[in-house]
Structures are given as C-alpha cells and as structure tokens.
Amino acid sequence: MDIAYVKTGDWGGPYLTYMADDIKVESEALPNPYVYGYGPKVPTRYKILYKGHWRRVYSACFSNCSTEYICVKGVDTIVDIYSDNITR
C-alpha cells in the first residue's frame, strides 16, 4: 500500500498534514541533472495527486539523507511517502 502525506507550512514547522489523494510509482525516475547525484531538485519516480493535479516528487539531497517535496504554486512543500514498492 502506498500512502503520501503532504505537510504544509513554513520550513521548520509547525506543519498542517494532509493525505494525498493518490500516489503513482513509475518504473523509472527522470534522469538526474546533477553530476554527483546530490542537489536541490533530484527527480524521484513518485508522483502524487494533490489538489486535483499530479505533481512530481523531488528530493533535496546534499549528504546521506534527503527531504522529499513537491511544488505547489511555486512553494516547496514537504512530502512523506510510505510505500511497499521501495527497493533497496
């Protein structure tokens, strides 16, 4: 089962959390535009349906951990994804 939660609010919180309407896991992600794999907008293979629009989930990764987010009207909004399809 795949579930995504969207956290709205300023970076650092407090956040108001909503469940996304749907989540889609694609077989492959878009190509990473950064040479070393780290960067502010690394595309993932996830898309979520939020407020009537399918939105690509991006990852801000600068070290060994990352934060996933979507863009809603030009504002980066944090997303938590819980998926059975995560491969390690």
Description:
- With 88 residues, the protein is mainly β.
- It has one domain (3-82).
- The chain is built from no helices and 7 strands.
- A 7-stranded antiparallel beta sheet has the order 2-1-7-6-5-4-3, with no helix packed on it.
- A hairpin with a 2-residue loop joins strand 4 and strand 5.
- The model has no long low-confidence stretch (mean pLDDT 87).
List the helices and strands and how they pair.
Blueprint: E1 3-8, E2 16-19, E3 22-25, E4 39-50, E5 53-61, E6 66-72, E7 75-82
Antiparallel strand pairs: 1-2, 1-7, 3-4, 4-5, 5-6, 6-7
Low-confidence segments: none
Q: Which oligomeric form is depicted?
A: single chain
Helix content: under 10%
Query: How many helices does DSSP assign?
Result: 0
Radius of gyration: 13 Å
Q: Give the total of beta strands.
A: 7
The fraction of residues in strands falls at over 45%
Q: How many structural domains does the protein architecture include?
A: 1
How is the largest sheet built, in terms of strand order?
2-1-7-6-5-4-3
SSE ordering: EEEEEEE
Give the biggest beta sheet: 7 strands, antiparallel
Structural class: mainly beta
The shape, in one word, is globular
Q: What is the mean pLDDT?
A: 87
Distance N to C terminus: 17 Å
